[in-house]
Amino acid sequence: MSNFNLGMVLSYHSLLIQGALTTLVLTIGSAAIGGVLGPCIGMLRASSYRWLSWVSGIYVELFRATPTLVQVVWVYFALPVITGVQLSGFVSVLLTLGLHEGAYVGEIFRAGIKSIDKGQMYAARAIGMSYRQSMQRIILPQAFKRMVPPLVNEFASLMKLTSLASVIAVPELLHAADNVISFTFRPMETYTAIAVIYAILVLPIIALAGYLDRKSGRTSR
Amino acid sequence: MTTVDEREVSSAVAGKAGAPLIEVRGVRKRYGALDVLRGVDLNVRSGEVAVVIGPSGSGKSTLLRCINCLEEYHEGEIYYSGQLVGYLKDSRGRRKKASSASMCRLRATMGMVFQNFNLFPHKTVLENIVEGPIVVLKEQRASATKRALDLLGGVGLAAKANCYPEELSGGQQQRAAIARALAMRPRALLFDEPTSALDPEMVGEVLAVMKDLAKQGMTMVVVTHEIGFAREVADTVAMMDEGSVVESGSPESVLANPAERRTIDFLSKVL
Ligand SMILES: Nc1ncnc2c1ncn2[C@@H]1O[C@H](COP(=O)(O)OP(=O)(O)OP(=O)(O)O)[C@@H](O)[C@H]1O
Ligand SMILES: [Mg+2]
Question: Domains along chain A?
């Protein structure tokens, strides 16, 4: 503890920067997958198509009821046994976190749609709009404003979740740290350094979510 | 203040005087195990005003939603200008659900005004009113806007066209909602307790618009506790309780000389 030697760790900064980049790519990649999947899931769950709503509900609950770490190792180690296709660690994590995000974003969409007063749908249908027109023009524009803060928060959580990729040796930030430690034998300095890097990446996003939340609280439209 | 363009309303009802525009026959509806409508009958001829009264939970809102095809019903029939609402009948008389497109077309010809106004909060008053004509009736924006401004003038809201609903008082919001319904050139208007959410001083301005419409021959079904309005405007008053119409007839008979115990009890509470 006596000599906190950050300089030694920082001489491996290129490894850490590489790790941070991988973390960013994983975050953005799985957010993109979740961003496409989630709205579909949310709309199905909010719809009156019983079966589709039920099936998408199972998907969501499965991902919400199991630890993300278990999801990651399951896709990496167990899925190949079933499918016979071994995915790389990177692709496994991208897929797992993408599906994970799909479930969580789906929940945010469902809750957002449900939060809109039923009278809005009645009013839209009463002037002769179809379900689709009512959704597109009346419900979703209102719901989306309420979804933005939780979606941004979810993005911040996702960035932290990417650290799970280290368990299957994907060279993201946490795994890069383990490498740096193996060279420097400086765990304290190294973990401190990456904690700071994570905070630098995540804090602005959380701040943005807070700002959007306060802003949307001020006006209803 | 309240002069909705007379030609437009009367053109919508021209040539239909006397024929029943809305016919509800033995309609039953359940929510799960709860029987909400237990055989409702109601006839409203073109140009008539029917006022529906009755205690909370008696199924008044549900009935309006069934008439406007916003809700399914399990038994009985609802006819709107001769067309079965929500269903098709095959040659053996079995019914199946009508296509969603045909239900949309039907709803577009029937206006609905809600207790909580249900204006679209993300759109200005003017946008609220032109939404249906443009999106559903495929009208040109310019002509829809011109007509919307006329309608807003008719309900005394010309100056509020570019405001958002939250900037309006309750009474103004409800008048805007009536203008939104009128913009679709409906053949009938359904009102679900249009003044119940209003502060007392705003009730009059909304009722005035409704009286105006009635005078111009608009067919209306009005759920309300405003007995004075019923007495003055209604052609028929129907008293609902526990999912059925327990008494109906002219305002003189139902309101002044009710025959049913339940009507008497109800009236003693709201008067
Ligand atoms: N979507 C629904 N699901 C289940 N039950 C419902 C639903 N809508 C209404 N109900 C029930 O149906 C019954 C009739 O409701 P409805 O809203 O038609 O009554 P109402 O006469 O309009 O009463 P109010 O004066 O309170 O508006 C009530 O017991 C209500 O709880
Ligand atoms: Mg009601």
Answer: 6-220 (1.10.3720.10)
